[in-house]
Write a structure and sequence with these properties.
about 500 residues, alpha+beta, 2 domains, elongated
Length: about 500
């Protein structure tokens, strides 16, 4: 039905163009140009429609790649988000997930890829499929050379070793693992799609192939081996590379079809191929088991001691006075400073009927969705991460307004600064606001609060609550940013007089 409609529309448009005198006049004036265009859009021409589509797709991905390069050179929002994303992902890490990501990233390790190419080359030789064999070698080997050249052009350093779980010595931009995953697994997926007739197996193969590529790309960011923009750049330029390889194969298949006459029977080739692939899988697991992840101890940032009486004068000389979005755009001004060790701080809030909010993680993300679907209370619902000095908030507290529900609550984000007092007390900075309601974006997946515009009221409430609980030893009020009105990336607006409390807590 759809094909009939398309053909009908095409005929109508064609007749309209053919009968249009103005178009005919232009056509007669530039006959060579129109002849060239016609050949480029004709499926039966060797360098016609297939090549045109391949070039257009390739140019699209190249355009995206140069957009990322432009952002890198100009340090645009995409690049500014790199460090914040890596810092945020650190909150999702667990020992089991670390090991899983290491295994996934090994799927694009040089040793694994080399053995894989050798094994699949042998299989293709048995099948006497020289085109696929040449394409495989060009895709992987040529791709590795291509990435090496780009890396050495840009010479971008890797992320800091303090945030990385694996050590890498080469340059960072773009991600070689991501590129070679596309070059090998993407091409193997295409081989299956071209060779297999069963639609179900085709769909499964496509999903599996895409899944491997995306998983490898994600593992590079998770392990801290690459900046997110490295992976994104490799994804688009790798897609351009694969498009070139596939386009050449499509043209050869269309205009130079050949029959494969392997020396061995299909059954023999199948058995031997399964044996080779099984050997490769065993090699992958052996490599993983003999090259385990070397767990790093928690990195503790060194702290600078400042006198507690000098906090108001010296704390913000080198530290930001405003929180920030994922891309570093200014958000709410800091309106709370707390001088206390972590245990006393926690007691002060919990005794004031505030909940310590859960950290955002895979587990809590599923719990949020589950609580919304099943409509049960989850007062410890973590808020969306807010950044300060490129770090996501390390603590968050909330005080629901009714029935332990998080849909409307008092809320504060807290960050531990790199300073401490002479009494070994940590210095925390925070932004406090009131979450009025949850507006659901993308149905139930991303619940986002609408915050009250007058954020200073929350500053006053927190000071009063801690005072009433008996944990407030002393306080002072400082003018930090001056009158500030603005809007966060979430769309929530805020108004502040720019003042902040410094609360000195005491044990009780």
């Amino acid at each position: 039905m759809v094909k009939r409609i398309i053909k009908s529309v095409t005929r109508s448009v064609g007749r309209g163009i053919k009968n249009d005198p103005e178009i005919q006049r232009i056509k007669n004036r530039f006959p060579r140009f129109f002849k060239f265009i016609k050949k480029r859009l004709t499926p039966t021409e060797k360098y016609g429609l297939y090549l045109t589509i391949g070039i257009l797709i390739t140019l699209f991905f190249i355009y995206l790649f140069f957009g990322i390069v432009r952002d890198y050179i100009g340090q645009e929002a995409l690049i500014r988000a790199d460090l914040r994303i890596i810092n945020l992902i650190g909150q999702f890490r667990t020992p089991k997930l670390n090991q899983s990501m290491l295994f996934i990233t090994y799927l694009a390790k040089a040793e694994i890829i080399t053995v894989g190419v050798i094994i699949f080359s042998i299989i293709l030789i048995l099948l006497k499929n020289w085109r696929f064999l040449n394409a495989l070698i060009v895709s992987v080997v040529g791709g590795e050379i291509f990435v090496w050249i780009i890396k050495n052009i840009f010479e971008r350093p890797r992320p800091s070793l303090t945030s990385a779980l694996v050590n890498e010595n080469s340059y960072s931009f773009p991600s070689g693992h991501t590129f070679v995953a596309i070059a090998l697994y993407g091409l193997l997926t295409y081989f299956v799609l071209q060779s297999e007739k069963n639609k179900f197996y085709k769909i499964i193969s496509f999903i599996f192939g895409i899944g491997i590529v995306i998983s490898v790309a994600s593992s590079r960011i998770y392990l801290g081996a690459h900046w997110p923009s490295d992976v994104l750049a490799s994804f688009v330029v790798g897609s351009a590379w694969l498009t070139i390889i596939i386009t050449s194969l499509k043209i050869k298949k269309k205009f130079h079809p050949i029959k494969f006459n392997p020396h061995f029977t299909k059954k023999t080739i199948l058995i031997f191929s399964l044996f080779l692939i099984a050997s490769w899988i065993i090699f992958i697991f052996s490599f993983y088991l003999t090259n385990p992840l070397k767990e790093k101890g928690e990195y503790i940032k060194p702290k600078t001691i400042i006198n507690s009486t000098q906090i108001s004068q010296t704390l913000f000389q080198q530290l930001p006075k405003i929180s920030e979005s994922m891309t570093g755009a200014p958000a709410e001004p800091i309106n709370i400073v707390i001088v206390s060790n972590k245990e006393t701080l926690h007691q002060a809030f919990t005794k004031s009927n505030w909940f310590l909010l859960d950290q955002l993680s895979l587990k809590t993300s599923f719990k949020i969705i589950d609580s919304i679907i099943k409509k049960y209370p989850y007062p410890q619902t973590p808020g969306l991460p807010v950044f300060w000095d490129t770090e996501p908030n390390s603590l968050g507290y909330g005080q629901p307004t009714e029935k332990d529900l998080a849909s409307s609550r008092h809320h504060i984000h807290l960050w531990e600064t790199p300073f401490m007092t002479e009494n070994n007390e940590s210095i925390w900075v925070g932004t406090a606001h009131f979450d009025e309601e949850i507006k659901k974006k993308f149905k139930i997946i991303l619940p986002i609060h609408t915050t009250q515009i007058l954020v200073d009221e929350e500053r006053e409430k927190i000071k009063e609550d801690i005072d009433n609980s008996g944990f407030l030893k002393s306080f002072e009020k400082i003018d930090l940013t001056g009158l500030t009105y603005g809007a966060k990336k979430s769309g929530n607006k805020f108004l502040s007089d720019g003042q902040a409390y410094i609360l000195y807590l005491q044990n009780k």
